[in-house]
Amino acid sequence: MTGLIASWVDGANDPACPFPLNNLPCGVFSLGGDDPRCGVAIGRSVLDVSGLEEAGLLVLEGGPLLDVPFWNDVMEAGPAVWSDLRARLAGLLAADSAEQSAVEPFLIPLADLVLHLPFLVSEYTDFYAGRHHAANVGTMFRGAENALPPNWLHIPIGYNGRASSVVVSGTDVRRPWGQVKGPDDAAPRFAPSARFDIELEMGAVVGQPSDGPVTVAEADAMIFGYVLLNDWSARDIQAWEYQPLGPFQAKATATTISPWIVMRAALEPFRVPTPPREVPLLPHLAEPGPMLYDIALEVALVPEGGRETVIARTNWREMYYSPAQQLAHHTTCGCPMNVGDLLGSGTISGPTRDSRGSLLELSWGGKEPFVISGGTRSFIQDNDTITLRGQALGDGYTVGFGDCRGKVIPALADPYKRT
Ligand code: MN
Question: Which of 103, 157, 324, 380 counts the most CB atoms within 10 A of its CB?
Answer without folding.
Answer: 324
